[in-house]
Amino acid sequence: MDIKQTPPSDGNFESPGGRGNPNRLEALVAKLRDLNKSTVRFEAGHMVLEEGEQNSFVFVILEGEVAMLKRGDRGLVMEVDHFGPGDLLGLTSFWTREPSFLASKALTPVVCLRLEVQDMEQLVHSDPSFGRTIHQLFISNLSNRYRRMIGLNVRVAELSDALQAEHQQLKAAMLELEQTRSQLIHKEKLATLGQLLAGIAHEINNPCAALSHGVTHLRESLVTALSSGKNADLLKNESELLLAGLHAPYLSAEAKRSRMEQLLKNHPGMPRSLTRRLAHLDESVLARIDLTKAGSKHSNESEAIEAQIEFYEIGVYLRSVDLSSERIQKLVQSLKNYNKPDQEDWQSLDLREGIRDTLVVLNNPLKQYEVLLELDPIPPVRCIAGEINQVWTNLLVNACQATAPGGQVHIKTSLAGESVEISIADSGTGIDPAYFDKIFELNFTTKKTKSDFGLGLGLSIAKEIIEKHGGHIRAGNSPSGGAVFTVRLPAQASTT
Q: What does the buried/exposed string (b/e) look like for 266-287 if buried means 16 or more CB atoms within 10 Å of the residue's CB?
């Protein structure tokens, strides 16, 4: 009989190996042999007990190994315990008369004794004290199973914790891989976009150069035609108006409205359409136009005034075309020099000039809004003009998109310590505070429909340019509720 012989320890019914008490087990085996109970043999792979079936026996394993199996809800059969010599099979179902909870499968050839209910009764009848021995043996065997179950649960809990930790690590690794993948895709897109832009820049450069060349010659030809020969005396005033238009500063809506009110006050009979056009002219230009007959009912006199205004507006339009052409050329050059920082043209500039130029270029979309200017004197900033002007363009376009027509766009410059501060505010609905930082991320946009044409690039590009210049940009909301973007750039130290 293959039973490990170890002495009992202080009344404990378990052997150190986890099996039932050997002395009591041998006593049971001896009693069963006295009843002429022969051994039962099961070959490897044979099912000793089937799960869910009624069982009327207790099997005492003498030799071999048996696997205890349980079928899961999904039909998967798993091994939940392992029995060997000295263990009892079918004990629970035998004792409770309930169907077997587990199946038992011989892993190796198994030899065991089979105990029936009649055998139990006969043993107790022949030796009443032996009933207690059997009960203790059964309890010892069940205790062993319970301890193994607890140990298994502890092990499962440990494995679950380890699995959960590995799952979190895997989740973090997957997130990192996804971010890396997104970055690689983004870099690939940027590389492709760079190649595309290089081609576009080349195609744009030629017609842009022709446009700039044509505007320059047109400006020079007009001035020459108006100031040469017999036209010099007749059209001297018109020539000066044209030149004034070429150098006209940007006027805010507030300033234009104030001039309209003053013109109507000084010339009550002046047509409102004419007043609106004259409001674009500053005092020095207005002095060149005879406004004493502005309210005249004679159409030829009003036409004469409008003809003079036309010369001024021709100059304004030429300036706008010239500035736009120059902006395109700078953008093209910026595209060409994208990866050549040594060729970038850093200059000491008054940022207010770049803001005014940007307002001229964006004159058409800004017509729908009231633009308020507070361009206080500021020291120059060392920067790349084309790139910084791109920042103003992006912020102003963003303000227009966030504000309903008729709203306000407020631009302010000031000195903040050793930095120059520029703020661009709108009267829109503002920004969710949760997006104050996120709004500068690449491809982030709050636009809901494709009709907005939002790619989520404008603010990201603006932030990149500002940081390149050693400054920073932040988003916020004004007390009135609209969005405010504040840019700070280091002021250039005075050389005096």
A: ebeebeeebbebbbbbeeebee
- pLDDT for 345-393, tens place per residue? 788 999 998 898 888 778 778 888 999 999 999 999 999 887 888 899 8
Across the range 324-342, mean pLDDT stands at: 61
The first and second tokens of residue 244, run together, are 């004034």
Find the mean pLDDT for residues 265-273. 81
Q: Is residue 492 part of a domain?
A: yes
- CA proximity to 312, closest of 357, 246, 249, 364: 246
Q: Residue 447 maps to which CATH number?
A: 3.30.565.10
| pLDDT for residue 232 | 60
Q: Give the contacts of 481 (CB within 8 A, at least 6 positions apart).
A: 427, 429, 430
* pLDDT for 413: 96
The number of folded domains in the chain is 2
The model's pLDDT over 106-155, given as tens digits with 9 standing for 90+, comes to 999 999 888 887 777 777 777 777 667 777 777 777 787 778 788 888 88
Q: Give the domain extent around 58.
A: 22-128
The residue among 80, 108, 128 that closes a domain is 128
- Domain ends where: 94, 128, 162? 128
Mean pLDDT of the chain: 78
Would residue 139 count as lying in a domain? no
Q: Is 309 contained in some domain?
A: no
Residue 41 belongs to domain with CATH number: 2.60.120.10
Specify the range with the lowest mean pLDDT, choosing from 200-214, 334-348, 428-442: 334-348
Contact 429, 404 (CB under 8 A): no
User: Is residue 302 included in any domain, yes or no?
Assistant: no
Confidence of residue 84 (pLDDT cuts 50, 70, 90): confident
